[in-house]
Write a structure and sequence with these properties.
The structure is a homodimer of 150-residue chains. By secondary structure, the first copy, chain A, is of the alpha+beta class. Helix content of chain A is 38%, strand content 18%. Chain A contains six helices and five strands; from the N terminus they run ααααββααβββ. Chain A has a two-stranded antiparallel ribbon. The radius of gyration of chain A is 18 Å and the shape is globular. At the A-B interface, α1, α2, α6, β3 and β4 of A face α1, α2, α6, β3 and β4 of B. β3 of chain A pairs antiparallel with β5 of chain B. Chain A binds a DNA duplex (30 and 30 nucleotides) through α3 and α4.
Chain lengths: 150, 150
DNA sequence: GGTAATTGGTTTTATAATGAAACTCATATC
DNA sequence: GATATGAGTTTCATTATAAAACCAATTACC
């Protein structure tokens, strides 16, 4: 492949995000982490990923501060992986992906899972809104350069 | 690589979504499409992607109904690529990725771009809410199986 | 307390995906 | 009508991924 292109310096925030979690496995690992998995073998069994690839992905997720590795027992060498605050901040990405999948990637009668409010069991909504609360779509928005963030 | 693992049959909607757009380039192409790009060479120049890879990615995005290829001129062989309704439905995914990137992947004073409301120039918000409008986070939600979608 | 099994990886090897460059053919441009 | 550009395809070298074997450290079992 002649060294995958890095988007690290790209000024577009989406590009940088994809540089961190835009590969085949990282978001699947993050999804499982949201589901409460912490151990190497849990991820490995759930995803069917090759062990070396999993080890490599966990390493880079930790490097990027998405996961934190901590010894499972005091002084032990065995690790467990937890979402950091930054990692939990990927929640909207996961929800958006999930909703897209739910809407478009299932046959009409095909059984599917759904993300619901723990309190009342009702599906959750993801909305993109202007400051005044008005819902906005792709055509209502523009990307502007902010040279000096406040 | 011994055939990348396909997530097509996975019952998790996020997994299926990642199967469609979870590779290194597809979402970058979609981002450019949201920015109004339609032509092969525009994508190629913007992304610096190899031509054969771009051709391949455009093909699969069209196959998945994210982009539609239409002749640029009546009867001509040259194509242009537009987001379909399904493709535009990836808007929340793009916004979520962008917001994650904005929050975590820029140095404090580093210039960045921002997605704003075309009407008033104010940044847009992405929220995940329960039916009653209460904002919910990862811990407030659960995934449930829905055997028989309505 | 000694042995077996499990966990959490690393190393090795084969193959597929990627990238770069050269090539092709149709379409604009002058 | 010649030249340049657009939109790919083909070929080839290289890298990333997967599978399997291997290994050290824990943990479980008796």
């Amino acid at each position: 492949m002649v060294a995958r292109k890095s988007l690290k310096g790209d000024p577009c925030p989406s590009a940088r995000a994809l540089d961190v979690i835009g590969d085949w496995w990282s978001l699947m690992i993050v999804r499982d982490a949201f589901d409460g998995m912490t151990r190497f073998s849990e991820f490995q069994k759930s995803l069917g990923i090759a062990r070396n690839i999993l080890a490599e992905r966990l390493r880079t997720l930790v490097e990027h501060g998405i996961l934190a590795a901590e010894p499972v027992a005091e002084g032990g060498a065995r690790l467990q992986y937890r979402l950091t605050a930054r990692g939990r901040d990927l929640f909207p990405v996961m929800v958006a992906l999930r909703q897209f999948g739910e809407r478009h990637l299932f046959a009409p009668q095909e059984p599917r899972s759904r993300l619901v409010d723990r309190a009342d069991g009702q599906p959750v909504r993801l909305d993109i809104r202007a400051q005044d609360g008005r819902p906005v779509g792709p055509d209502d928005t523009v990307v502007v350069k902010v040279p000096e963030p406040e």
